[in-house]
Write a structure and sequence with these properties.
Layout (H helix, E strand, L loop, with lengths): L40 H8 L11 E2 L3 E2 L4 E2 L12 E2 L4 E2 L3 E2 L4 E2 L3 E2 L4 E2 L3 E2 L4 E2 L3 E2 L4 E2 L1
Parallel strand pairs: 1-5, 2-6, 3-7, 4-8, 5-9, 6-10, 7-11, 8-12, 9-13
Amino acid sequence: MTEGDGRCQYKYEVASKHCSHPALPGETLCILHSSNPQKDPKLFLKWLNYNTYFDFEGYVFPGVAHFSFQSFESEDPELEGHATTNFRDAHFLKRAEFTGAVFDGHAAFGGAHFFGEALFDRTSFGTQADYAGAEFH
């Protein structure tokens, strides 16, 4: 992908992954990856709801991130217990609510930034939770 082709130019940790969402007008990033403080929170939530693979790498959550009592469990029986929920390098600009959430497999929060409260009480992790390099501001 080249700059200006209308697609998000976010650089994933895994070089073979690409964001398929359209870039915001006048930007190189989509609504999910953009750090633009003027982005529309309702539009962000609309696009967020299309994410069915639990891959939130690099997302910039503009409002409170509501994941309380969310089940991050794979529906693929071959992946049961091995599904990864990816929040690597995500930015939670306000409160991040994960109270009572259930992570079936590895939950990756490496490099994430939490600018508000980070609530993980009664959260269940199936295998492990990785917070290496995460920052709580």
